[in-house]
Amino acid sequence: MSFFEVSPVYKYAHKALDYRSMRQDLIAGNIANVDTPFYKPRDIDFESYLANAMNEEFGRSRKTELQMAETSSRHLSPLEERVQGGTIFFRDGHMARNDGNSVDLDVETSEMGKNSVMYQALVSALKKHKGIFAYAIDSTKNI
């Protein structure tokens, strides 16, 4: 454990950076496949995973994920693609074009912009966090 990792939130900030990077790749893939027939846009839900992990870390027990009821042992489990704690899913709600593609370029570019801003905010927060400790260390040298 590094000296700069004294805050328990620090590791979650790094996980969030990984998530934002992965989400940027998924959105870029959606934009790249805007003309691919029958392509469905993909996204990742990492916020609920991160909230659950932080609740466990800080002693809160409230779950943010609704569990599916299983009334028979013969039921199939829901199909999910889990990656690094997040769940990759197909983003729905947009009308498919005649070729079956449901990528909306306006939605994808706005999601990419929001994701970029959140990534930059995380990087800035981590830099400030390290800067505070570096300033404290440098200040104690003069005492």
From TrEMBL:
It comes from the Bacteria. Keywords: Bacterial flagellum, Cell projection, Cilium, Flagellum. It is found in: Bacterial flagellum basal body. GO terms for biological process: bacterial-type flagellum-dependent swarming motility. GO terms for cellular component: bacterial-type flagellum basal body, rod. PANTHER family: FLAGELLAR BASAL BODY ROD PROTEIN FLGB, FLAGELLAR PROTEIN. Structural component of flagellum, the bacterial motility apparatus. Part of the rod structure of flagellar basal body. The basal body constitutes a major portion of the flagellar organelle and consists of a number of rings mounted on a central rod. Belongs to the flagella basal body rod proteins family. This is Flagellar basal body rod protein FlgB. It comes from Helicobacter brantae.
